[in-house]
Fold:
Amino acid sequence: MEYSPPPLFKQGAPARVKVVVFALLSIVLLVVDARYQALTTVRQVAGTVLYPLQMAALVPRDAVGNMGSYFSSIAALQKEVRELKSQQASTATTMQLAQLQMAENVQLRKLMDARAHLPVQSMLSEILYDARDPSTRKIVLDRGSQNSVTLGLPVIDNLGVVGQVTRVFPFTSEVTLLTDKEQAIPVQVLRSGLRTVAYGRGQSGTLDLRFVAPNADIQVGDVLITSGMDGVYPAGLAVAKVAQVENVGAGAFGRVICQPLAGVDRNRQLLIVMTHMSLPPRPVVEEPVKPNGAIKRNLPKMKPLPLPTLTAPDVPAPAATPPADAGKGAGAKTKPAPLPVAGVPKAPAPAATSPAPVTPNQATQ
Structure:
């Protein structure tokens, strides 16, 4: 059985005719639009209406492209973060080194300025390390006997006294700081001129003025300088500042605590004072001659005195006792008096007899 469409669908021109008609219509529209721009408004309206459909059609493509770029951007960002962190660490290290060098440069400038104002010769040195003994306050410098460093040389910085060289090696030297318990330095109060001695207090990092009278003219804030009385430290170097004054009861000594002015625990570069203080020799004091003649230096030679003559021939003349130095000067030998022996009675002394008068001629001989 054959079926045929209804008569309604069989009406109209054939397909070939339709194709030819629509093709000619398209060509006419193209020519008219190119010549007279008649379809511009139609295109704008059509583009506006079809734009949402166009974007909806491009969503799958954009999603796939964005997914790939997302993962690639995450990897690039992670790599960049790692590089930035590494660069930040290296930059921080460089900055710290630069800050350290700047601080050392400032300290060196201060030391050079202080060195120019010192009246004695000095040498720049650097701290290598602290001493191994934790109970002492000592440091080791990079200068030794090869650099003419000797025992007892003072060590200072731009603010004041730091310590004293107590041990010397060929290429290094050990310095005992002022705050060590076994270190002492003679000081003088700058305001009043009072002289005293400052002792270190060990790990506390301070100084102590011992055996100070309760009425001593010392106040909080006074500056202590070297007095130069010991012949080691040049006079006038700053040492410490008085931080605390304790007055004890009447008749007892007071207690004064001082804070060092120098950078004992801060600076890395120091100055070694290379000149020893030369004090004049002490005057020689002549000791007085004792009565018993124990000291016989610088005494004039003396001659023995003549013996007086006695009138009675039976009475022996008493032996004259010359001075202790008479026998030494004239060469005469005198018999020493016998010493008493325990348990032996002494012989009775002879009766005293009046000596004969001495003539003037005999007295002058």
About this structure: The first helix runs from residue 15 to 36.
